[in-house]
Design goal:
By secondary structure, this protein is α+β, with helices and mostly antiparallel strands. The chain is built from 6 helices and 6 strands. The strands form 2 sheets. Strands 2-3-1-4 form a 4-stranded antiparallel β-sheet, covered by helices on one side. Residues 153-197 are annotated as: Disordered.
């Protein structure tokens, strides 16, 4: 034989008395354990973030890059998408939209209703939302009031432009201007048959 199995008893393990690993044992024996959340009224796992109640949702949208929509086109898309689920454009205009921190909107709907967003055009993610400002119980995001978006007052992430390292820029200069002086340059000599013609 090419290989030989070592019996567990030889390794100091007894397969009849050795307990399974802790994580597997807990998952198997815990009747409340579920890798997926249930939509029924069963007790939920501990909610870690304040305000995350599975009634407040963050709908993140991904728009085409070419051609990219204008800010106004994105803003028009949000209440139209929300009205599809809520059934009312007036109700849809009460929620916070964003074109700065993320592209999407917030809404308050049941967990069952939140499922209706999945599969709608340009909807990327449907996520449970949580407070950005726990003290004031504020979910953040730009505010949509009377058809106008007021940017949020919270700091937003602004990525810094990347600087090229010195070695990258030096390599580019060498390629651009040719090899440094004194380095070997291949000669382009004509073959004997070409020079006689």
């Amino acid at each position: 034989p090419f290989f030989q199995l070592t019996p567990p008893s030889t390794l100091g393990l007894n397969s009849l008395t050795a307990p399974p690993p802790r994580t597997i044992k807990a998952a198997v024996l815990d009747s409340d354990y579920s890798p997926k959340r249930s939509s029924s009224n069963e007790p939920r796992e501990t909610i870690m973030l304040p305000g995350c109640d599975y009634n407040h949702w963050l709908i993140v949208m991904e728009f085409p890059k070419d051609p990219a929509p204008t800010r106004e086109q994105m803003i028009d898309t949000y209440p139209n998408t929300l009205a599809t689920v809520l059934g009312s454009m007036e109700e849809a205009k009460k929620y916070a939209f964003s074109t700065t921190t993320y592209t999407g909107f917030q809404c308050t709907v049941s967990e069952k209703s939140s499922e209706k967003f999945k599969g709608l055009p340009v909807v990327l993610w449907v996520l449970p939302d949580s407070y950005i400002d726990v003290k004031n119980k504020d979910y953040g995001g730009d505010k949509y009031i009377n058809g106008e978006i007021t940017p949020c007052k919270y700091p937003t992430y602004q990525p810094k432009p990347r600087k090229e390292s010195k070695s990258v820029s030096k390599r580019y200069e060498r390629r651009k201007n040719g090899p440094p002086a004194g380095q070997y340059r291949p000669k382009q000599a004509a073959s004997p048959s070409e020079s006689s013609s």
